[in-house]
Write a structure and sequence with these properties.
By secondary structure, this protein is an alpha+beta fold. It has two helices and three strands, in the order E-H-E-E-H. A three-stranded antiparallel beta sheet has the order 1-2-3. It is elongated and about 70 Å long.
């Protein structure tokens, strides 16, 4: 994610409109950028944000458990964890 400001009175502001812009990649390793004006961004509600964070924590906890199981198989159950 990138953040740009097109100050009023500049050529970019005259061409695209003044104010803050957000540049987002469609995928992690993508070269394609999408630009949004500040007015086009809607923040998540506290409940939505909590739900997103909780889901991400659960996903990574599952990944950790899978890796621990794989480690136990490889080491014959002998781990320092």
């Amino acid at each position: 994610m990138g953040l740009y400001c097109y100050p009023n009175g500049t050529e970019l502001a005259e061409q695209f409109g003044g104010g803050w812009r957000y540049a987002l990649m469609s995928r992690k390793n993508s070269d394609e950028l999408f630009h949004f004006q500040e007015s086009q961004i809607k923040p998540l509600s506290p409940q939505e944000l909590l739900s997103e964070i909780t889901a991400e924590i659960e996903f990574y906890q599952q990944q950790i458990n899978i890796l621990k199981q794989q480690l136990a198989v490889v080491t014959g159950g002998f781990t320092n964890a």
